[in-house]
Amino acid sequence: MWRKQLSIGVLISICTFIGHANAQKNEVAGIIGRTFISDQVIPTSTSADNLLRYGNGLTFEGNFSRQVMGGQFLAVSLEVPVVFNVDEDVHTHSNPVAPGFSSLFVTPAARLNIFSNTAVSPWVSVGGGFGRFNGSAVQFQPKTSSTNGVFQIGGGLDVALFRHFTLRGELRDFWSGTPNLHITTNQSRQHNLFVGAGLVWHFGK
Fold first, then answer.
1. Are 101 and 59 in contact (CB under 8 A)?
2. 66 near 20, Cβ under 8 Å?
3. What is the distance between the alpha carbons of residues 39 and 49, in angstroms, rounded to a whole number?
4. CA dihedral 4, 127, 149, 16 (to 10 degrees)
5. Domains of the chain: total
6. pLDDT higher than 50, residue 196
7. CATH of the domain at 119
8. What is the pLDDT of residues 58-68, one digit of tens each?
9. What is the rounded CA–CA span in Å between residue 157 and residue 131?
């Protein structure tokens, strides 16, 4: 039931954005970076090194947003960040070359920009949506997939470049469930820290 509610919420948010596209200032951003996930303990492991370790997955973000409130000092935008981790490597001490997994996060959010009309504007973002994991961390096991709810909080800095373009650096934390890796760890949820930079195109009024 909660998956249907999340899906409905995401669709309503996107449709609301599109419905007001001609009346508000819009942004499209493309970001590239890395996702970092902390090591997790494998309680059933008999090895002295009982950690499940993650690599630093190459990650891409596409983001559409619309400014809904604006002033000389503060501006509020509604955004839909879509973040795709292409290949997150996973390994243990006993299996140093294990297959990895991919992840997709879609988390509609509200973003608050400070000094919104200046050349340098810091911002914070809070939202929620869903995450999708695909893959397997153990050889000779079938690939798996799972979907769960995700809470997103982030911050960053926008720096004006020229005309309708700005440079954006950001850090977002996607707090999600854990992927099904055929390995039981001491965690039921995990922080997926995305660090990236890219360009933002501003259009529409």
1. no
2. yes
3. 11
4. 20
5. 1
6. yes
7. 2.40.160.20
8. 999 999 999 99
9. 25
Q: What is the DSSP letter of 178?
A: P
Most distant CA pair in the chain, distance: 61
Contacts 24+ apart (CB under 8 A), 155-163: 155/122, 155/123, 155/124, 155/125, 156/122, 156/123, 156/125, 157/120, 157/121, 157/122, 157/123, 158/113, 158/120, 158/121, 158/122, 158/123, 158/200, 159/119, 159/120, 159/121, 160/119, 160/120, 161/199
Q: How confident is the model at residue 183 (pLDDT cuts 50, 70, 90)?
A: confident
Hey, what amino acid is at 106?
Answer: V
pTM beyond 0.85: no
Contact call for residues 103 and 36 (beta carbons, < 8 A): no
CA–CA gap between residue 84 and residue 32 (Å, rounded): 10
Q: How long, in residues, is the chain?
A: 205
**22 token code pair:** 């001609």
Contact (Cβ atoms closer than 8 angstroms) between residue 168 and residue 31: yes
* pLDDT score of 199: 98
Residue with tokens 């720096």: 159
**Residue range of the domain that includes 185:** 2-203
State which H helix or E strand residue 4 sits in: helix 2-19
